[in-house]
Fold this sequence. Notes:
- The chain has helices at about 1-40, 75-85, 105-110, 120-125, 150-155, 170-185, 190-195; strands at about 50-55, 60-65, 70-75, 90-95, 130-135, 155-160.
- The protein is α/β, with parallel strands linked by helices and about 200 residues long.
- The longest helix has about 40 residues, at about 1-40.
- It is globular.
Amino acid sequence: MRKFKSLITVLAITVTSAALFTGCRNTGSNDSNSSSQLQAELKQTQYPVTITTYDASGNEVEQTFEKAPERIVTNNLSATETLIELGLGDKIVGMMNPDNEVTSVYKDSIANINKLGDKKTKEIVLSAMPDIIVGRTAMFSDKSLGEYTEWNANGVEVYAQAASVTKGETKIESVIQDVKNLGVIFNVQDKADSY
C-alpha cells in the first residue's frame, strides 16, 4: 500500500509540474505576443511629431507634422527613389525634372510621376498642392524654390535631406538618418528599418 501511495504522490507531482510548466510556456507565448504588439505600437508615429531638418545654409530647423503627409513633391531623384523604396510612390504628386536620365530599377515608377519642370518653378509646385516637399537643402533658397519658411507659410512642410547638407562630408549615417526620419514622418518605420 505504501508503494501505491508513493506512486500516486509521484504521479501527482509529475502532473502538477507538467501543468505548471505548460502554463508557464503559454504565458511566455502570450508575453511574446504582447512584446511583439508593444514593439509594433512603439513603431507607430505619435503625431504631432517634430523632426529636425535643415535650411539652405545647412542650419538645423524644426518641422512639425500633425499627421502623415498625403501629397509629396520631391526636388531631386534620390528623395524620389527613397520614397518609392519606402512604399510611398503613390503619394508623390510631382517631382522636379531629374538632372540625369533615370536608368535605375525605379525608372518605370518615376516615369509615371508628374514632372513639375525646372527647380525654380514655385507656382507650379504650389499648384500640385503638396503637404510636404522632400529633397536637397540647396533647393530651399531664394535662388531656387524658396526658403522653408515661405513653404511653411503656405501650409507646406519641408524635409531637407541631411545627406545634402554641404557642411563637411556626407556620411552614410546622414543617409540612414534621412531614411529613419522619413519613416517617422510618414509612419512607415518598419519599412525604413528594413530598408
